[in-house]
């Protein structure tokens, strides 16, 4: 004989007066049930009760604002001029305005000068190099003040994203146009640097590229010529008998005269059979040059390097071939 055992499924959600899931919705499942909690509530450890979720205890809620929890939700009270972002996770200052790198108080007036950007947020300005912002302008919050910490929670070089409120790097090279005067701006994580072109040097403010006056640094850079400084470069004005070389950056003596292999007691002796320029003579085997017997500088001295350069290959004089060998 066989027996058929019939069992019936119990619908817990329908077995209780009212909703078994307070602050939630009951979902019947085979042999059990599940509570689907309303927004702002969460299941407790028993899994059968929906309790209030304290959103204010979560770090990603109400950043930069004052959070107040209540059953089923929370309120975020933003500081003056701040509003809640679209995601409701924090407070941001959405205003846009001009940014200034210099600020002074003159009586009751706020004087802002050296505009470095337009139409940027207060955080972008004040959390980087800005000293004042807005129109009319207002000074940026003092460093280490509560207002400064609220505006720049990540410190210098970072700002809260207007949508997510997550901190992000300020790209000063894009946001602050003209930041590097005369140079190229290079953005770095949390900062920036200025790179100057050839012929310029970075000022002590680390933002301005100043022209290098090569004529002032080395008055002898043109040798016998006159140095004329230009923006980012210099040029040599050469006297009669001299020719500009190296793209106008030096003068070489093109006058030809006697080249002497020996100078004894101020007297030049053993002249070559052909005339040479002073450079060709003294930078090879010559000991003296010219009708007035100019003594050639000694190899290895500054005077020799100035006349001959640092890449001279000293050769020898060949009487049979009638020229100087090995000089370039």
Automatic annotation (TrEMBL):
| Family matches, as InterPro entries | EGF, EGF-like_Ca-bd_dom, EGF-type_Asp/Asn_hydroxyl_site, EGF_Ca-bd_CS, NOTCH1_EGF-like, TB_dom, TB_dom_sf, vWF_C/EGF_Fibrillin
Cite a single Pfam family from the UniProt record.
Answer: TB
The segment(s) forming the TB domain are 97-152, 257-308
SUPFAM superfamilies per record: EGF/Laminin, TB module/8-cys domain
Q: Which UniProt keywords apply?
A: Disulfide bond, EGF-like domain, Glycoprotein, Repeat, Secreted, Signal
Per its UniProt record, what PANTHER family does this chain match?
EGF-LIKE DOMAIN-CONTAINING PROTEIN, VON WILLEBRAND FACTOR C AND EGF DOMAIN-CONTAINING PROTEIN
Q: What is this protein called?
A: Fibrillin-2-like
Native organism? Branchiostoma belcheri
User: Gene encoding this polypeptide?
Assistant: LOC109463096
């Amino acid at each position: 004989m066989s027996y058929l055992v019939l069992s019936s499924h119990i619908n817990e959600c329908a077995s209780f007066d009212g909703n078994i899931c307070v602050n939630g919705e009951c979902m019947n499942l085979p042999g059990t049930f599940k509570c689907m909690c309303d927004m702002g509530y969460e299941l407790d450890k028993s899994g059968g009760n929906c309790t209030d979720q304290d959103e204010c205890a979560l770090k990603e809620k109400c950043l930069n604002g004052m959070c107040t929890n209540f059953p089923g939700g929370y309120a975020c009270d933003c500081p003056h001029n701040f509003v809640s972002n679209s995601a409701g996770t924090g407070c941001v200052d959405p205003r846009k305005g001009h940014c200034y790198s210099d600020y002074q108080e003159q009586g009751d007036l706020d004087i802002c000068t050296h505009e470095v950007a337009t139409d940027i947020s207060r955080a972008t300005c004040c959390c980087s190099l800005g000293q004042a912002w807005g129109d009319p302008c207002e000074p940026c919050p003092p460093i280490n003040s509560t207002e400064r910490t609220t505006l720049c929670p990540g410190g210098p070089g970072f700002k809260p994203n207007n949508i997510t409120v997550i901190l992000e790097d300020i790209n000063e090279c894009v946001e602050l146009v003209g930041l590097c005067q005369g140079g190229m701006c290079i953005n770095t994580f949390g900062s920036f640097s200025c790179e100057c072109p050839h012929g310029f040097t970075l000022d002590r403010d680390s933002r301005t590229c100043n022209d290098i006056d090569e004529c002032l640094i080395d008055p002898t850079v043109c040798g016998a010529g006159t140095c004329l400084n230009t923006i980012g470069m210099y040029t040599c004005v050469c006297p009669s008998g001299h020719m500009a070389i190296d793209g106008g950056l030096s003068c070489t003596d093109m006058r030809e005269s006697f080249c002497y292999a020996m100078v004894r007691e101020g007297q030049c002796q053993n002249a070559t059979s052909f005339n040479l320029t002073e450079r060709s003579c003294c930078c090879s085997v010559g000991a003296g040059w010219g009708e007035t017997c100019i003594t050639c500088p000694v190899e290895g001295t500054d005077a020799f390097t100035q006349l001959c350069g640092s890449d001279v290959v000293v050769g020898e004089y060949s009487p049979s071939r009638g020229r100087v060998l090995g000089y370039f």
